[in-house]
Design a protein that fits this description.
single chain, 10 helices, eight-stranded parallel β-barrel, disordered C terminus, 8 strands, alpha/beta, 15% strand
Length: 230
């Protein structure tokens, strides 16, 4: 039986996202203002805007940024430098992309070690690991569940939103089966409306990355399907 959720509760699980290459400061400001108004879990933004957001909005919102994004094939040292700079600039959460080439080469231990290295740099800050599931076989996805778990990350995340596919039910169900008990799931990519958001939360996701949830709430403010009012 699907859980009934309020719109407010669902928005509290959203990483309100804007990662387009042409995002202007005006666009980012609007994103942040919406995040504050609708109490989203965070804003997920390009690294170059982290410090300006912190300086402008202070502690009114949680800032998430991306590392090794969107292709993941930067060397670990480069990703590590990105993490350290993001934290210095005032970032709260990091979404890193794995090296998919390492996965395809069967070097799962190398991926795990990179995750561990970045988590050590993050310390108490949340680390989410983007595995870009659309490029992986079921065996590789299962191996990444182990790598994320053993590497000590806080979340496994389905997608960048820049690959050939985004979050799908089957991947979330597989993650739930193979991740460790302390690892949470973030769905991202292709979450286009409140029905999608509710579905992924009911599947067991703790976070959902999307640029469209706030717009959907404005366009369809009334409760939908089995949701209860805000």
């Amino acid at each position: 039986m699907e859980e009934k959720r309020s719109v407010k509760e669902m928005l509290g699980k959203v990483d309100h996202t804007l990662l387009k290459a042409y995002a202007s400061w005006e666009d980012i400001q609007k994103l942040c203002e919406e995040a504050i108004e609708f109490h989203t879990a965070s804003v997920c933004v390009p690294p170059s805007y982290v410090k300006r957001i912190r300086d402008t909005f202070g502690n009114q919102l949680t800032i998430c940024t991306v590392v090794g994004f969107p292709l993941g094939y930067s060397v670990t040292e480069a990703k590590l430098a990105e993490v350290r700079q993001a934290l210095k600039d005032g970032c709260d959460e990091i979404d890193m992309v794995i090296n998919i080439g390492d996965v395809k080469n069967g070097e799962f231990d190398k991926v795990e070690q990179e995750i561990r290295t970045l988590k050590e740099a993050c310390g108490e800050h949340i680390l989410k690991v983007i595995v870009e599931a659309c490029y992986l076989t079921e065996e590789e996805k299962t191996a990444m569940c182990r790598a994320v778990t053993d590497g000590g990350a806080d979340y496994i995340k389905t997608s960048t939103g820049f690959g050939t596919g985004g979050a799908v039910r089957e991947d979330v169900e597989l993650f739930r089966k193979y991740i460790g008990p302390d690892v949470k799931i973030k769905a991202a990519g292709g979450v286009s409306d409140l029905e999608d958001l509710e579905m992924f939360l009911n599947l067991g996701c703790d976070r959902v990355g999307t640029s469209k949830a706030v717009q959907a709430c404005r366009e369809f403010p009334r409760p939908f399907r089995n949701s209860v009012p805000v």
